[in-house]
Amino acid sequence: MTATDVTGASQGIPGASQGVIGASQGIPGASQDAMDVSLGIPGASQDVMDVSLGVTGAGAGRATPVMSRRHAAGGESARGLLFTVLGEFVLPSGGSAWTSAFIDVMAGLGVEQKACRQALMRTAAGGWLTAERSGRRTRWSLTPSAERLLTEGTERIYGFGRAGQPWDGRWLLILARAAAQRERQEADRLQVGRPARHRLRTRLSWAGFGSPAPGVWVSTHADRIDEAQRVLDEAGLLGESQIFQARWAGGGPLAAMVTQAWDLASIERSYEAFLTEFGGASSETATSEDAGSEDAGSEGAGSEGAGSEGASLEGEGHGNGTGDSLARLAGLVHAWRRFPFLDPGLPAELLPARWSGVTAAELFTRLHTRWSPAATAEWRRLNQAGD
């Protein structure tokens, strides 16, 4: 059940894999990539060692399911693309699908059939899917853990970027410098590296915190006290750290501190890349869909006969054929998935004058709304074809 060389690379979807995915080492649910860090769900570890989420339903005697941070945020792998498909199509359509449906939609994303099958097996070995044989065919179903994880993930993805409540000016402040210094001294003495500091930095960064100075972490989300305590506790630094809710009272400009705490320029470049990738598709698909509706009216029921050809999803980027509808929507969601984990969600008054986050969120919502009906219908057709 364990993959040994997943080579299916995406061809045209931002962030898709171009190389070989690391082999499993025989541990169910264990990370296959040294860069994998787990999902930011309350109680979950973000360490590169992929500590368990602690979600029940994995089955007795096996490791608790683990979602790597890399896969959760649109990781560069066939398995990362598979999780996009699971959340976008499988979850809202009953929670199960045939192998043939996965192969077709993944082909449109540039993933070869062998790599798709291996990604399915690895995901099942991790406790996220169960397989049921029916003759020579296999139907894959989400486990309760997967349903919970994907539901939380989709809520975060689709809700990100929307206008929230006005910021009340409060900051959440963490002082962990003394604890970090002691941990560094102990690590240097034992010559074992800096695991606690690495975990702290990784987890707080992905939770939206920034560090304007060593050992100091700040966030504009003052209600995330429980999450901050969890992160410090899991890093073994809670007892030696302090957490405050505070307000800025004066001194230098806040903009300077924000620049020190977060690399907003890098995030802006990512947003600009997203807009470049998908911005042209907005007007193009609107025009083609208008033309498509006219063609459908003239062809009538005859269009149904072309379904078997459309099922071969060798799509080209954001093409407008029936088969391409799945690939372009999956590609859109896959590209957007990383932003809730990259962007700290700062209030408008702290953002630079040049900020494309709002525009990118509006584009994502608009395209997702426009592309979903055709993609959902095509997924339903593919899955029913396997019955």
What does the overall shape look like?
globular
Distance between the termini: 24 Å
Radius of gyration, in Å, reads 23 Å
Strand content: 5-15%
> What is the strand arrangement across the widest sheet?
5-6-4-7
Q: What is the arithmetic mean of pLDDT?
A: 74
Q: What does the main sheet amount to?
A: 4 strands, antiparallel
Beta strand count: 7
How many alpha or pi helices? 14
Low-confidence stretches: 1-64, 66-75, 290-322
Overall SS class? alpha+beta
* Share of helix, binned: 40-55%
Q: Please trace the helix and strand order, writing H or E for each element.
A: HHEHHEEHEHHEEHEHHHHHH
Which key phrases capture this entry?
single chain, 387 residues, alpha+beta, four-stranded antiparallel β-sheet, three-stranded antiparallel β-sheet, 14 helices, disordered N terminus
